[in-house]
Fold:
Amino acid sequence: MLVLYGQKLSSRLLLGTALYPSPAVMADAVKASGTEIVTVSLRRETAGGKSGGQFWSLIQSLGVRVLPNTAGCHSVSEAVATARMAREVFGTDWIKLEVIGNHDTLQPDVFGLVEAARILASEGFEVFPYTTDDLVVAERLLDAGCKLLMPWCAPIGSARGPQNPDALRSLRGHFPGVPLIVDAGIGRPSHAASVMELGYDAVLLNTAVAKAGDPVAMASAFGKAVEAGREAYCAGLLEPRDMAVPSTPMIGMAAFS
Amino acid sequence: MKTFIRGAGVAGLTLAHELAMRGADVTVVEKRREIAGNASWQAGGMLAPWCERESAEEAVLTLGRAAADWWDAALPGHVSRRGTLVLAPARDTGELERFGRRTSAFSQLGVSEIAVLEPALAGRFGRGLYFAGEAHLDPRKALLALRDKLLGIGVRIEFDRWAVSAAADIEVDCTGISDRRLELRGVRGEMLILRTGEISLTRPVRLLHPRIPIYVVPRTENLFMVGATMIECDAAGPITARSAMELLGAAYALHPAFGEAELVETGVGVRPAFADNLPRVERDGRHIRINGLYRHGFLLAPAMARQAADIILGNPAAKELALEAHR
Structure:
């Protein structure tokens, strides 16, 4: 059972709600994925505090937990202000914290991220920080009050899949008790399965489902892949070997000399 | 049969035309003082059902493919049938692949073919898609011309008025986002109009980008319409700095001459949409509604007008058509 800030969850897939062909398709994809948490970008959906009422009602009708998101914030003050606004609009202490450092790669500004996380944690927010796979930054985020980490595996929306599995493995090894969620860069269900096989606790994605030819079918595929990867990790994976090992017994076979 | 239509946007005026041409008595009431200002006024005016299929459902293509013919018949000379050019910056050519996989009825272009179609863009893009069957019009000129034509054929259009006469046999609501129903939502769209004599384009150009896809539609007098954002929000306030920056940045990426252009207008419209982003014709007794045209006003209004006119004037096939519209 996955526990994030005290909330027990049975699905290990978190889904974004942007970029779908229509809200109806988004709603069907959320249902097909089995997800229990959706992210909603405050900035885009409300254009500065004025609510996109219908879109928000539709999301509420899905019966899933909402994780508001500071997507598109480029500074600490902007991210903090957006988080405070999100707490009012969505009525939750949860916040997916994004402080973007580079406009092209949407790479997190890890320095600003740590600073914003500290401010928000001190105000009682339960922070889901979108970070890189850097170990030291991860430690600083935990020091700042984050109880979980959301490293990227590739740039947002790039669909490239895990670019540095060793770094992801290292994070897992260093923080065995901290929920780790791969946040960005997943393009295919096999990518999601592979990070789950590394022992990651969950996967958050958006574009790979929203921009698929059939978002609803792709959402279902990702739901299965995440489950398969988790089950495989729990079952204990076979380590790769350099030599062939026969699966049929050698003893009792005819001996040739 | 007296029909009152509320709303003189593209939905209301196309329906008025469809009804008047079939001999009906039509009055249009509009709460604004003039045609300008509604969502249709801010539209791109692209009649591009094949390109729209990239993100829209099949119904948009089915309902929209006859739009250019409808406009051509209603307003001869307004429709420009020069196709649509779809381009992507060198590092985003993956977007072109994706666009091509989701659409049909296009040809692949290389550098030389792009130069032939749009000499101003020669050498700037290595690959592109050309949707030869698509068309565009200038929405503002089309709306004004439609108004004038309607007045000429006996349709009454009353501005600055909201009340519908009690004598109406049929009332049709075509008020877009002003029709405050629970299931209708607004999708804010922001656009710019630039003026430059340094380049000329002869057809709409779509520039793909993973985050900020834009289109540039050439108009007369060296004007170019650059659109449009899609924000889940029904606020109609002024364009944000960020949106303006993104639209301008993308236009500049299409051609640096846009960097020297005059920014003559910024506009904001709120598109009315249902959850499936498809339009509907609905009937409740003598009340009919056409709404949910979303980003497809000029593309889908003719099909919706035909369906509504069939219902109003009793076309026997109307019931099925209405169901189809509901999908």
